[in-house]
Inverse folding.
C-alpha cells in the first residue's frame, strides 16, 4: 500500500540505539581534526579533498557552501581557511557516489521515503535529470530540453503567474539568483519566498526599521577590536565555527565575551584552535567570560533589565549613555525612556530566568565598555516577538553609542553561504519599488509590484490550491519548513514540483502530481560555458562580495549550472514574448554581472571589483552612521515582553541543529559536543522537569503540541537529561518541525517560531 504524501514527509520514527555521554566543555581541537578526516575518508576521494582544502575560502579559490562566515581580508591561513563543518559540507557535495537511472529504477519513491534523512543524503550526487509522471512509483530519466519544456507547459497553463511559487535556498550564487528573480518577475509574479524568510527575516525587518539597512554593521576586523562581544541565541561552535577564531583573537586583544543561551554550548565554553600547536597541547582558550543560561525567549526581559539598570546609573551618576551620539544620530529617545520606566526591574529579571549574580557580571561588563558588538542567530529570530528581540538589542547599542564605530555594532550571523547575497540581488517577495523601477528601466517590462508569498504564505497558498506549481532553486523545502504534515499536503496539491539540487533529499520524495529533479553543479565543481571557465560570486555575513570558482571536474557530464537551468527554464517558458535574450547569459556570466551593476546599488564596476583578491564591501550606512531610515536617524523602539504562558504540564521547546548537521543536511548521527551518539530522536530536558514527570534517562516518550485547537504529534523520542533551564527543552529539526504550527510566526517578519513551541512530553 503506497504511503501518503504526509507520511513520506516525516522522518522515520525509528527507536534508536543511542549512546549518551557527558557533554563536551571544549570544542574543535583534535576531535575536530578527527571528525573532518573521518568524513573525508568515508565519503570523498582523498586527492580531491586535498585539492579542495587548498582552495577553500582562499583568494581566487571557491567559497565554502556551508555558512556565511567571512574570510579575513588580509592573510588567509595557509594551513587551511576552513572548519570541520566546512569539510563536512564539501564531503557532502564532492561525495564520490553518483545516482541516476539505475538507482531510481531500483528504488521507488515510497522506499526512499522510508529511509532516514541521513541515508537519503548519503545516497550520492544526482547525475541526470529525472521525472516522476502522475501516478508513477519510480522516477524516470528525461532530457533537459524535455524537462524545460515540461516546466514551461505547466507554467503557461496556469490561470495566473501568481499560481506559481519560486523558492530559493541560500546556496544560490548572485548570478543565478539575479537571473532567477528576473525570470520570475518577467513571467509575472513576485512569489519569491526564500530561506531567509525562515531565519534572519526578523533581523532584516528590525534592522531596516531601526538602522536603515537589514544587514549587520560590523566587519571581521571590528570583532577583533571589540571590548565586549555578546553572543546571543547563537551556537557558533556548530553553525559558524570559524567565528571561534575571531572570538579567540578578540580575547587575545583583551576583549571579553558573554554567551547568552539556554544551552551551555561547547564552542562558547572553550575553543582549541587546531592551527595553534600550543593551544592544541594546552587545552585551548576559554571563550565566554560569562555564560548566561537564559530561559527560552527570555531575551527582551533580560535586555530590558539591563536597560533599566543602565538608566538608573545614568540618572544617578551620568556618563553612562553616549549622549552626544544619541543627540546627533538618534530619534525617539524620550518615548523609549518613558516606556522603559513603566517596567519593573525584578519582574524583568525573573522573566529572563537569569540569576542576579550572573546578571550583575554582564551588567558590569556592559557598563564599563563602549566598543560593544552583539552577535545573534536563530535564538533571537525564530519567535513570535523576534522583531522585538532584535530591536531591544539595538536599543542597548544606541544608548552606548556602539554603532558605526570601530569594534562596535550589530552582527546577525547568516547561516547559509549566500543567503544575504540572494536578497541583495533581488530575491525578495516584497522588493522595494525603486528596485522594480530599475528592472523596468533596464529591461522594458513592468514587474508586478504586488507583494508575493513568503514561505508561510506559499505553503498556505499551495494547501488552499491557490498555488499549483512549486519550483525550488536549491534547498530541501519540506524538511526546512514548519508544520510538516500540513506542508506536505500543500506540496501534494501541486500539479508540478521541481527541485534544482546537487544530491537527493526528502523534498524529492514529497511531490506534486508530477515532479522533476534538476541535478546541478556544486560550488566545488568547474563551470564550463561557451566563453570558458566561469566565475561566480557570493556575499558573506558582513557584506563582502567575493568570487568563487570550482576546482573539481563535474561528477557527471549531464549536470548544468544553476545559471544554465534558470536560462533554460526562462527560455522554454517565456519563448519569444520575452524581452531578454536568456541564452546569452549562460555563455558568459560577465554579462549577468554587467546587468547587476546597472540594477543593484553598490555593484558598479562589478566585474572589475570582483577581480580584487578579497572581493569588495557593499555600502553599509549603519557602519558609517548614515541611517537610511524613515527618520534619517537611528530609531529607538518600544518593545513588549512576550506574553505567552505555559499550561501546567507544558514545556517550551526550541528546535536546534546537532553538530553533525547543516540546516537540513545530516552529515552524521553524532552530536559529540552534546554527548549524543548514533541517533537524533532525542529531547534534551531539565532534570527537575524529568523528575516531575517521572521520566528516566533514555526513556521513550511522545511529544505533542497544541495550537489554536490543532494537535500535532511526534512519537518515539528518548529523554536526555541536560543543563537547560526549567520548563525548557530542545529537540533537533527536521524531526520536530511537525510540532511547529505554521500560524506561529514573528509579527512583521513571518519567521516561523521554531524556537518557542509549547509541548507536552508523555511516556510511551
Ligand atoms: S565557518 Fe562556515 S563558511 Fe567557514 S568553513 Fe566553516 S562552515 Fe564553511
Amino acid at each position: 500500500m503506497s504511503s501518503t504524501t504526509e507520511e513520506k514527509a516525516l522522518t522515520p520514527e525509528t527507536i534508536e540505539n543511542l549512546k549518551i555521554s557527558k557533554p563536551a566543555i571544549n570544542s574543535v581541537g583534535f576531535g575536530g581534526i578527527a571528525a573532518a578526516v573521518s568524513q573525508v575518508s568515508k565519503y570523498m576521494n582523498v586527492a580531491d579533498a586535498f585539492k579542495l582544502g587548498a582552495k577553500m575560502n582562499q583568494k581566487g579559490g571557491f567559497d565554502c557552501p556551508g555558512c556565511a562566515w567571512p574570510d579575513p581580508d588580509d592573510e588567509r591561513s595557509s594551513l587551511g581557511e576552513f572548519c570541520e563543518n566546512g569539510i563536512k559540507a564539501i564531503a557532502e557535495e564532492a561525495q564520490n557516489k553518483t545516482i541516476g537511472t539505475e538507482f531510481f529504477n531500483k528504488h521507488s519513491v515510497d522506499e526512499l521515503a522510508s529511509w532516514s534523512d541521513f541515508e537519503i543524503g548519503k545516497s550520492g550526487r544526482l547525475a541526470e535529470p529525472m521525472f516522476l509522471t502522475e501516478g508513477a512509483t519510480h522516477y524516470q530519466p528525461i532530457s533537459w530540453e524535455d524537462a524545460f519544456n515540461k516546466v514551461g507547459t505547466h507554467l503557461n497553463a496556469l490561470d495566473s503567474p501568481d499560481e506559481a511559487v519560486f523558492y530559493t535556498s541560500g546556496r544560490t550564487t548572485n548570478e543565478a539568483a539575479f537571473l532567477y528573480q528576473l525570470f520570475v518577475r518577467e513571467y509575472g509574479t513576485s512569489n519569491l519566498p526564500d530561506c531567509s524568510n525562515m531565519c534572519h527575516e526578523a533581523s532584516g525587518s528590525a534592522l531596516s526599521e531601526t538602522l536603515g539597512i537589514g544587514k549587520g554593521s560590523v566587519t571581521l576586523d571590528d570583532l577583533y577590536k571589540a571590548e565586549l562581544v555578546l553572543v546571543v541565541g547563537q551556537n557558533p561552535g556548530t553553525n559558524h565555527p570559524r567565528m571561534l577564531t575571531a572570538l579567540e583573537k578578540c580575547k587575545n586583544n583583551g576583549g571579553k565575551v558573554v554567551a547568552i543561551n539556554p544551552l551551555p554550548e561547547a564552542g562558547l565554553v572553550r575553543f582549541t584552535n587546531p592551527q595553534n600547536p600550543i593551544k592544541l597541547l594546552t587545552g585551548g582558550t576559554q571563550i565566554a567570560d560569562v555564560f548566561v543560561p537564559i530561559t527560552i525567549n527570555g531575551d527582551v526581559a533580560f535586555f530590558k533589565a539591563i536597560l533599566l539598570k543602565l538608566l538608573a546609573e545614568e540618572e544617578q551618576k551620568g556618563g553612562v549613555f553616549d549622549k552626544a551620539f544619541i543627540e546627533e544620530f538618534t530619534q525617539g529617545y524620550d518615548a523609549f525612556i518613558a516606556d522603559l520606566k513603566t517596567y519593573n526591574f525584578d519582574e524583568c529579571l525573573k522573566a529572563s530566568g537569569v540569576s542576579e549574580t550572573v546578571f550583575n557580571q554582564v551588567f558590569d561588563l556592559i557598563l564599563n565598555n563602549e566598543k560593544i558588538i552583539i552577535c545573534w542567530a536563530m535564538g533571537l529570530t525564530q519567535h513570535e516577538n523576534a522583531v522585538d528581540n532584535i530591536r531591544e538589542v539595538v536599543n542597548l547599542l544606541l544608548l552606548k553609542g556602539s554603532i558605526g564605530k570601530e569594534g562596535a555594532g550589530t552582527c546577525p550571523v547568516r547561516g547559509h553561504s549566500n543567503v544575504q547575497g540572494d536578497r541583495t540581488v533581488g530575491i525578495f517577495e516584497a522588493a522595494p519599488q525603486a528596485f522594480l523601477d530599475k528592472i523596468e528601466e533596464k529591461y522594458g517590462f513592468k514587474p508586478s509590484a504586488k507583494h508575493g508569498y513568503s514561505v508561510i504564505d506559499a505553503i498556505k497558498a499551495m494547501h488552499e490550491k491557490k498555488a499549483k506549481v512549486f519550483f525550488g532553486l536549491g534547498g530541501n523545502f519540506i524538511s526546512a519548513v514548519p508544520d510538516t504534515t500540513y506542508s506536505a499536503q500543500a506540496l501534494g496539491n501541486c500539479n508540478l514540483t521541481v527541485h534544482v539540487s546537487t544530491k537527493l533529499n526528502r523534498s524529492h520524495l514529497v511531490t506534486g502530481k508530477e515532479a522533476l529533479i534538476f541535478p546541478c553543479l556544486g560550488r566545488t565543481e568547474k563551470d564550463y560555458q561557451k566563453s570558458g571557465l566561469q566565475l561566480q560570486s557570493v556575499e558573506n555575513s558582513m557584506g563582502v562580495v567575493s568570487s568563487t570558482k570550482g576546482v573539481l571536474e563535474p561528477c557527471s557530464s549531464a549536470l548544468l549550472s544553476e545559471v544554465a537551468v534558470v536560462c533554460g527554464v526562462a527560455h522554454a517558458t517565456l519563448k519569444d514574448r520575452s524581452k531578454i535574450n536568456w541564452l546569452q547569459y549562460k555563455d558568459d556570466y560577465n554579462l549577468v554581472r554587467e546587468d547587476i551593476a546597472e540594477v543593484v546599488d553598490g555593484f558598479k564596476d562589478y566585474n572589475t571589483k570582483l577581480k580584487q583578491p578579497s572581493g569588495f564591501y557593499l555600502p553599509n550606512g549603519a557602519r558609517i552612521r548614515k541611517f537610511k531610515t524613515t527618520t534619517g536617524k537611528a530609531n529607538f523602539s518600544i518593545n513588549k515582553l512576550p506574553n505567552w504562558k505555559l499550561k501546567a504540564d507544558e514545556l517550551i521547546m526550541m528546535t536546534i541543529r546537532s553538530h553533525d548537521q547543516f540546516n537540513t543536511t545530516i552529515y552524521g548521527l553524532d552530536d559529540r559536543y552534546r554527548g549524543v551518539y548514533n541517533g537524533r530522536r532525542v529531547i534534551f530536558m531539565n532534570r527537575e522537569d524529568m523528575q516531575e514527570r517521572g521520566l528516566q534517562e533514555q526513556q521513550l516518550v511522545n511529544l505533542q503540541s497544541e495550537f489554536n485547537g490543532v494537535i500535532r504529534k511526534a512519537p518515539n523520542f528518548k529523554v536526555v537529561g541536560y543543563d537547560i533551564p526549567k520548563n525548557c527543552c530542545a529537540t533537533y529539526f527536521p524531526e520536530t518541525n511537525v510540532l511547529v504550527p505554521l500560524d506561529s510566526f514573528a509579527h512583521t517578519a513571518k519567521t516561523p517560531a521554531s524556537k518557542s513551541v509549547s509541548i507536552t512530553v508523555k511516556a510511551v
In short: The chain has a mean pLDDT of 97. Residues 108 and 153 are 26 Å apart (CA to CA). Residues 99-196+433-619 form a domain with the Rossmann fold fold (CATH 3.40.50.740). DSSP finds 32 helices and 33 strands in the chain.
